[in-house]
Specification:
Blueprint: E1 16-19, E2 22-28, E3 35-38, E4 43-46, E5 53-54, E6 65-70, E7 73-78, E8 85-87, E9 90-92, E10 94-97, E11 101-105, E12 108-114, E13 118-121, E14 127-128, E15 131-132, H1 136-148, E16 155-158, H2 165-174, E17 183-187, H3 196-201, H4 218-221, E18 226-230, H5 240-249, E19 251-252, E20 261-262, E21 266-271, H6 275-281, H7 286-292, E22 295-298, H8 309-320, H9 331-339, H10 345-359, H11 389-411, H12 416-423, H13 427-436
Parallel strand pairs: 4-5, 16-21, 16-22, 17-18, 18-21
Antiparallel strand pairs: 1-13, 2-3, 2-12, 4-6, 6-7, 7-10, 8-9, 8-11, 11-12, 14-15, 19-20
Helix pairs in contact: 8-10, 12-13
């Protein structure tokens, strides 16, 4: 029997999800309001005036802690604050609250009181634009996107690498009044820091060394439509205020120009980074974060919605052009897919399907045999007799490194920049690992 096919028991009625919220009341300290309700939309507490609950407390970070109602209770998540979030004498990182609780944030004291469970609409349709998913979490995402599409709100999409953030941005664009206008993608992670301003806003010919031709801004190319700023968290700090001004004023100025040009674009951004932690670390501006995150959409990793795999496999096979292939998948293969941890998320699943279809033109189809072996098989036990702990540890670590970078090298077709981006490493370090384990020819690897 395939595991995890039963929808979470917290779905109490068709199209509804039961979430547990509550009330937050300030007991000690100055705040912009005495209390706030915690619901299904994330609430942020901090010193920044854009927070939902603003505390006038020097020991509170700009964005200190976030709270949201979930099926497990109110999730309290500290955002990398300098002085921490405490329950009693315990400093907490992430906890779920279902009972009355006293919290200390800086010198301020806050009381949490739970409310009666609330049934939130999550939609009955298991798809939205190019997206599919039967799980409660994805249907909740679809319901959020359905409401966001027709608006002009700026959307921030959060999720691990490979979760399908660009597809979500396309779905938002297609559901908007701008659907017949351009959808332009800017990969901020692929822009050299020194060229970031030019890449975003364009430049005039001769405006700097190497500017042999005029460059048109992607904001101009997207005029009337949507611009998708992928990996926004990689944008250099010195360019962030210029982007904030462009978003606020709806006009841009190319490098080397003295004139501003009005643009009419909707902005959708995405990142795999935890931007609120970056705000507290000083590497991302709080005002830009709140301007971009008018609406946040959090994509769950594939390992947390395994029941979506059959629908995803069918959809991907149709997209690839072989709609009959799903009927050839063996039951055992599908079960093994449902047990896999999916570190590469939906992108990894699509790669598996592409390889399987390329090698299996007819007959039974075993998708699982093409899974990247990122972890050693349980049959490959490490002998310990006569070996020190450090020796055994080095061997296991080396095997993991070899398998990890071999799989990543194949997924990225040897592109060192893309490997570095997915592994969150400098390219020089990536080349070092490739050279150490003899993967490909790192001296010839593409950037």
């Amino acid at each position: 029997m395939i595991e995890n096919q039963v929808v979470d028991a917290t779905v109490v009625a068709k199209g509804k999800l039961e979430v547990h919220g509550g009330t937050l009341t300030v007991k000690r300290g100055q705040a912009n309001k005495p209390s706030v309700e915690i619901g299904a939309d994330t609430l942020v507490v901090g010193r920044d005036e854009a927070c939902d609950l603003v505390l006038d407390d020097k020991k509170v970070s700009k964005v200190h802690v976030e709270m949201v109602a979930t099926e497990r209770g109110v999730r309290i998540r500290d955002l990398g604050s300098r002085n921490g979030t405490f329950i009693g004498d315990t400093r907490v990182g992430e906890v779920y609250l279902l009972k009355p609780t006293h919290l200390t944030i800086g010198d301020s004291s806050i009381e949490f009181a739970p409310s009666n469970p609330e049934q939130v609409e999550i939609g009955e349709v298991a798809e939205f634009g190019p997206l599919v998913g039967v799980s409660a979490s994805m249907r909740g995402v679809f319901e959020r996107l359905k409401k966001a599409g027709p608006t002009e709100l700026t959307v921030l999409i959060l999720g691990e690498t490979g979760c399908g953030k660009e597809l979500v941005a396309q779905a938002i664009h297609q559901a908007s009044t701008r659907a017949n206008k351009p959808f332009v993608v800017v990969d901020c992670g692929a822009i050299p820091p020194t060229l970031a301003e030019s890449a975003l806003f364009g430049h005039e010919r001769g405006s700097f060394t190497g500017a042999v031709d005029k460059r048109v801004s992607p904001f101009v190319e997207a005029d009337g439509g949507t611009i998708f700023l992928d990996e926004l968290g990689e944008l250099p700090v010195d360019v962030q205020p210029k982007l904030l001004r462009a978003l606020a004023e709806q006009r841009i100025k190319a490098v080397g120009s003295n004139n501003y040009r009005p643009v009419n674009v909707r902005v959708v951004a995405a990142t795999r980074r935890d931007l609120v932690r970056e705000v507290n670390a000083g590497t991302f501006r709080s005002d830009l974060y709140f301007r971009v995150a008018q609406l946040r959409v959090e994509l769950p990793p594939l390992r947390e919605r395994l029941e979506d795999i059959p629908a995803l496999v069918r959809k991907m096979m149709i997209d690839i052009g072989d709609k009959e292939a799903y009927g050839r998948i063996t039951t055992d293969s599908l079960e093994r897919l449902m047990r896999h941890d999916w570190p590469g998320n939906v992108r990894e699943l699509r790669n598996v399907i592409s390889v399987a279809l390329a090698f299996g033109k007819e007959g039974p189809l075993d998708l699982a045999q093409h899974l990247a072996p990122l972890v050693a098989s349980t049959n490959e036990s490490t002998p310990t007799r006569g070996r020190t702990f450090q020796d055994a540890k080095r061997e296991i670590l080396a095997r993991f490194e070899r398998e990890y970078f071999t799989a990543l090298y194949a997924e990225c077709s040897g592109n060192v920049s893309e490997i570095g981006r997915r592994a969150a490493m400098e390219r020089a370090h990536v080349r070092g690992y490739l050279r150490r384990h003899g993967i490909g020819d790192p001296s010839k690897s593409k950037d």
